Amino acid sequence: xxxxDLHGQSAVATSPExxxxxxxxAVVGAAAVAAPGGVGPRSAPLRVDAQRNLExxxxxxxxxxxxxxxxxxxxxxxxxxxxxxxxxxRRFPSKDVLVRRIAEEExxxxxxxxxxxxxxEEEPWSALSRFLRTSVASGAGRLLPPxxxxxxxxxxxxxxxxxxxxxRVPHQRQGVAQSEPRTVSSLSGGERPEDxxxxxxxxxxxGRLVDRARESGELRRDVTVADVLLVIATAAxxxxxPAHQAAASARLLDILLEGLRSRPA
Length: 265
Hints:
The protein is mainly alpha-helical. The chain has helices spanning 16-34, 43-68, 74-81, 85-91, 95-120, 124-138, 146-156, 184-187, 197-215, 225-234, 242-260, and strands at residues 2-6, 9-13. Residues 51-110 form the HTH tetR-type domain. Residues 161-200 are annotated as: Disordered.
């Protein structure tokens, strides 16, 4: 090794072997700086934390929107998730984006449940009943986008919905300053409901359940896909006691199912 002072600086000449050892030490030191304790890169635990925060935000959004409707503020979502509102906005740059994410996941859940009922029940009425009971019990319809109900009615009935029939569309949970929640289509930049692939898929699968039950003579002829989705959206009341809510939902669904059944002339 040779050391020579040059303008107050030291130039170190080393052999290749020494240089290799020093390089290895430098790499280890850099890793130790990046992660205290030298356990590993700091980015790994940050990614885990980010994923955990995302799950907390999505869970909180489902709960808050399910209880208060899509008009609930983002601050309520952040408070329920126990994160700062800035964390919510880092994952979802606007409330519209978060609402669309929740609505799409809810629509996909219902579609899966409808397919499962079609595949597991041979009897048309049993398949429709199974779908309704599963969906209501899971709360899958609590966040059903209102425009899905309107599209369902439009597909079943050639004429547009009369103004008075608009009142049949549930507004999820009326709890935020009496403000009417906007539909997911308006929240996402004015897209037409017909262009929503997820909603179209849901309506197609539920339509098969409805058609089969109609053809078997067990479902009333005037019942539409929108009516079936309306049952799902309204048969899960929000009650503070989970056991009471489950019992109330089951009782309400029994009554609604009887209303859907056809009656001998």
